[in-house]
Amino acid sequence: MTAHVHTSLRHPLVFRTLEVRRVETLTPHMRRVVFGGEALRGFVSAAPDDHVKLFFPNARGAIVRPEIGPDGPIHEAGVDYSPMRDYTPRRHDAEANELTIDFVLHGDGPAASWAAQAAPGQTIGAGGPRGSMLVADDFDTYAMFGDETALPAIGRWLEELPPGKRAVAFVEIPGDADRQTLTSYADTTIQWLSRDGADAATSKRLEQALADWALPAGETFCWIAAESGRARRLRQSLEGRGVAKDCLKATGYWKAAD
């Protein structure tokens, strides 16, 4: 078996103010926002599953972020800080000086609520990415398992894979109308798993798809992103089938309410 070498990169932490340039509704549960502005100069996102921390307007409509001390963010008592969430850079066009981020529209949280009303000219804050993990490029197949929150990373990963590779993606979505057109130079198979009204935290569509999936010939890297508990169980399932740690990455993109 090949000893696959992944590369970890660290980036300087930079805070930026992003201005909305364009907004597009992709599907009933996904809205794309394209940001621009001079503050994007020097932005770096090296891996498909990088994340930036976005700062949304507080109750007064202001962007207020904590200061960063030697031990992390410093939150002062009584300050109305901006709500913040992590998001995947779906696409960065350095020449056009634009950053595309896709927002899942679910519930009434600060990010989804902001994205639902986003319009050109509005601004939010952003920080990062602080780092990137570059997965080794010598696998034969790249397999991706995720719910709709993972779609931006999956879409970007497929676009960045070169010819000669194989990719398989299992994507759980709220309904058939949430399918997207994803492109790739790789030999790609996408299986859309519609929940049809089932709860995203307790659905078993991804789990069943994984149980039915036979590991392909050659060496495969498996990537998982979903609700935290589900991502952990999917990882354990693959480990139980003999997938080595350097061939697997699982991340909880969100956590179900207790």
Automatic annotation (TrEMBL):
One Pfam family it belongs to: SIP
Signal peptide: none
Domain FAD-binding FR-type residues, every copy: 13-136
InterPro entries: FAD-bd_FR_type, FNR_nucleotide-bd, Riboflavin_synthase-like_b-brl, SIP_FAD-bd, SIP_fam, SIP_rossman_dom
Similarity field: Belongs to the SIP oxidoreductase family.
PANTHER family (UniProt xref): FERRIC REDUCTASE, NADPH-DEPENDENT, NADPH-DEPENDENT FERRIC-CHELATE REDUCTASE
Protein name: Siderophore-interacting protein
Organism field: Dyella lutea
Phylogenetic placement of the source organism: Bacteria, Pseudomonadati, Pseudomonadota, Gammaproteobacteria, Lysobacterales
